[in-house]
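W.,

You were right to be curious about this one. When I first looked at the sequence I had no strong expectations either way, so I just let the prediction run and decided to look at it fresh. Below is the sequence, 115 residues in total, followed by the output.
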Amino acid sequence: LAVVHECRPTAIKRALANLLENAIKYGKVANAKIDAVPSETIIAIEDEGPGIPETEIKRVFEPFYRLENSRSRDTGGVGLGLAIAQSIVQAHGGQLTLTNRPTGGIRAEIRSPKQ
């Protein structure tokens, strides 16, 4: 089954790479799924990490915000990956959300309207 969605492929690739890298880095596993419904394309990436405190979920999209306070690049980036991903998704008219999974980990979901 092929999913065709009009977009800027290089930008979407960057957003997906940021989300997948975070899932692997903090959740050790990344499972990705794409689904198309008549009105939108849905891309979900799930990990098996510790999740994010509910009070921090909106803040992780802020540029340079990091949950992990260490300054080491081995344990965390500079805090731009999610901000960049969100900006790209919004530029395509879509929405990026993060939710804690009941079984642990995070679900990053991109919902983008079909053009």
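Here's what jumped out at me. Residues 39 and 114 are 6 Å apart (CA to CA). And, maybe more interesting for your project: The chain has a mean pLDDT of 88.

Coffee later to discuss?

I.
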